[in-house]
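User: Could you write out the 3D structure of this protein bound to UFG? I've included everything you need below.
Assistant: Certainly. Input first, then the structure.
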Amino acid sequence: MNVLVTGGAGFIGSHTCVTLLQAGHAVIVADNLCNSKSETVEKIKLITGKELIFYQIDVTAETEVHRIFASHPIDGVIHFAGFKAVCESVEKPLAYYYNNTVSTMLLAKCCLQYGVKKFIFSSSATVYGENRVPFAETMELLPAANPYGETKVISERILKDTARANPAFAVSLLRYFNPVGAHESGLIGESPQGIPNNLMPYITQVAAGKLEKLNIFGDDYPTPDGTGVRDYIHVTDLAEGHVSALDQLSEGVHIYNLGTGAGTSVLQLVKAFEEANGIKVPYEIVSRRAGDIASCYADAAKAKRELGWTAKRGIIDMCRDAWLFEKSLSS
Ligand code: NAD
Ligand code: UFG
């Protein structure tokens, strides 16, 4: 298939490009590099030994997006491009609503106009809000605690309604849990700008001596050791989930959790990182972070049952590969 990957230079998009190319698909990337670098596109080519087409464009820009659809016979779109920082979305709600929902509408509109029948969307476990864990696809969505989460709920609704009105349009809504790790080559990974918001990049930067210590946000949650529990998933497993979803996408709307189904606490992740890499990660327990929930993990049965996909890599693999990538940044 010829696949248009928006946000393909980003963290999850770049790993998915690698997996798509290795599976024999042709890839066109559209990314404005607002949170990524063009070197990543070169590294995708280096890892796979294959070419791809790269457009540095904004996927909310109508003329440019039309130009791509008019120039290539596209079979499917995987839409990763978007803003993703929860705190920033509270400060800049309009930027988040605009970027994340206008891009979804424009791409869906182009799909209908140019006869593209497959659409895969990057959603998030955040749409489950404070439901009871494990989160299952059948659960009613609860209001998100921040504009970022709402952009995912709204984009899902836009795509569901579009598919309902256009029965030949096939949509897969993939709800990711906590993607971490990096490609096993250490060539691509997650490199957030400034001080990381997320746990794994914070840990790797403490391990590298760039930050003094990890602040653990609360140890009084109703979890086994009191720290927050999340379903960490290796980014390569996540990438493979996209290829499975694309290869098997049929008419209608399909919703899948992409997670491992297992919860890991902050303290367990710190211990696993220390064990995997033989490095101490100094930490301090501080107060809870506003908006955090105690536990978030997937019921991962549906993706296994319908797509035959399960995550293969464990916490130790995630910690080892994240550290490999962090070391490559300073070498
Ligand atoms: P990322 O920031 O690394 O990648 C997003 C890419 O999109 C970047 O390369 C950025 O330059 C590009 N982009 C953003 N707006 C654009 C626009 N208007 N036009 C063109 N390019 C644009 O983020 P990621 O972690 O790879 O996340 C990818 C998707 O998955 C996002 O939609 C995110 O909301 C979703 N998601 C991420 C997580 C996570 O924890 N990383 C969890 C759940 C869902
Ligand atoms: N945490 C710390 N210290 C840190 C960073 C995080 O203790 O410096 C804790 C958090 O309190 C939480 C856990 O580590 O318990 C994971 O936090 P992350 O920030 O890594 O991830 P979140 O689960 O908060 O959010 C992530 C993405 C969201 C997405 C969500 C889906 O950032 O975009 O997963 O589950 F919506």
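The chain is about 40% helix and 20% strand.
User: Perfect, thank you.
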